[in-house]
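Hypothesis: this fold can be encoded by more than one sequence.
Test: take the structure tokens below, design a sequence, compare later.
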């Protein structure tokens, strides 16, 4: 569970986890909480839980890295044969966990929960469904619709994900990319009880853009196609101008045409450069090869041997 400023959710979290354990007594549970650089008392709450119950482990990141990286840290430190990712605000109902476990026992590796209904606004649900369509049109790999990070992953999936160390992450794309046996189940997203959503419109836009850019090179193709189209049109227009000038002798005219053409071409060039720049920025960030995150402590212990080098090699 990645948590960023979730101090008010902990009471609910603890009661939900107790329920998970009571409802699924055949399993050994570890509840791994990742503190993503919270500025409130989230860490203190985690320490309290860990002290009262050793099933709770916590990982304290050195600053706020964002949910994608917090989940990556979770993959690195979680131990079990299977891993369930949940939001700390308990918007993900624990009631579907038995179903997830059942499918896992049947042999599925990635049981993802799809939102059946959500309390999002019309605009938000419309844009998100359009976005999934766009993303799907860019790739052959099937993308799961209305699916967040709420899912059960088998150890094999976790080990696969652990090998993908990119910092510019879009984990949603990665679940699809790694393959394995997938099974979708439905759930009703709950209202957030405590605290507030950490996503502003701008960060959602960034997430969406990151989703496309770190998943597909299609925008680069788009830039090429646009360039080609504009060149063809320009070439046809060029021939037209030569013929008309030679036949009728063009008096000096055409300020509007020149302006429009210049502005249009300038726009297309900037767009192309912008797309290139987006990819270049990602290459820049990856090529530095920095660790994706640093940890302050794991269960209160500092200088853990895993701190600088998380084990991310697949089991042989
Ligand atoms: N989260 C995080 N780091 C961040 C932002 C969010 O770990 O920088 C966690 C947050 O604590 C929550 C989950 O990611 O457990 C989903 O965040 P939120 O509930 O704000 O998103 P929403 O449900 O509104 O999409
Ligand atoms: Mg939430």
């Amino acid at each position: 569970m990645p948590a960023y400023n979730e101090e008010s959710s902990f009471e609910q979290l603890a009661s939900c986890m107790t329920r998970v354990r009571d409802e699924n007594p055949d399993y050994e549970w570890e509840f791994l909480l990742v503190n993503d650089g919270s500025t409130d008392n989230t860490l203190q709450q985690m320490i309290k839980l860990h002290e009262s119950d050793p099933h709770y482990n916590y990982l304290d990141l050195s600053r706020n890295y964002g949910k994608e990286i917090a989940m990556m840290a979770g993959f690195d430190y979680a131990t079990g044969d299977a891993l369930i990712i949940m939001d700390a605000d308990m918007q993900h109902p624990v009631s579907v966990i038995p179903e997830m476990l059942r499918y896992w026992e049947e042999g599925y590796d990635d049981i993802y929960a799809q939102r059946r209904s959500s309390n999002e606004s019309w605009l938000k649900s419309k844009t998100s469904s359009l976005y999934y369509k766009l993303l799907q049109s860019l790739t052959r790999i099937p993308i799961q619709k209305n699916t967040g990070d709420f899912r059960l992953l088998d150890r094999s999936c976790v080990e696969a994900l652990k090998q993908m160390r990119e910092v510019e992450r879009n984990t949603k794309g990665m679940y699809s990319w790694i393959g394995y046996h997938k099974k979708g189940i439905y759930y009703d997203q709950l209202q957030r009880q405590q605290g507030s959503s950490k996503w502003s419109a701008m960060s959602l836009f960034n997430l969406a853009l990151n989703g496309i850019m770190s998943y597909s090179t299609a925008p680069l193709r788009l830039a090429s196609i646009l360039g080609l189209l504009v060149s063809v049109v320009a070439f046809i227009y060029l021939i037209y101008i030569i013929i008309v000038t030679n036949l009728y002798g063009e008096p000096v005219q055409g300020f509007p045409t020149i302006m429009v053409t210049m502005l249009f071409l300038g726009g297309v060039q900037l767009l192309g450069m912008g797309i290139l720049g987006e990819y270049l920025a990602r290459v820049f960030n990856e090529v530095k090869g920095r660790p994706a995150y640093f940890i302050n402590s794991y269960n209160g212990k500092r200088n853990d041997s895993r701190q600088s080098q998380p084990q991310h090699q697949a089991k042989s």
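The pocket of magnesium ion (ligand 2) is lined by residues 87, 89, 91, 192, 197 (CB under 6 Å). The first strand starts at residue 2 and ends at 3.
Hypothesis status: open.
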